[in-house]
User: What shape does this take?
Amino acid sequence: MIDNVAQVERLVTKLNAALPLTANMTPELLATLQARNPSGKLTPICAITWISYAGDEGGIMCRLDLGRETDAEAFASITHLRFDARLPLARDIAAYQRHRVKRLRRQPA
Assistant: This one.
């Protein structure tokens, strides 16, 4: 098992209560989304409008509002987002991200 389900459920509940949240996309996520939407100029800042847990396979998934310039939405794992350290949930999110990435690296290829 990758995630501690009880811990994830508590975090998802807290995150849903705090929606909408602002986050920065990682450069890799931004490049991927830009490649799928070459006509629109994307900024690294996005708003998270929905959160759900997709099990060990997907982790905590977020629906991203990419701004007014694009009418597109995207879904991404919370591990591909960065949050302002002043956000009350920033430590909890960072702990989840570190734990999940560490466990994913241990998985056989």
Remarks:
- The chain has one domain: 5-106.
- DSSP finds four helices and five strands in the chain.
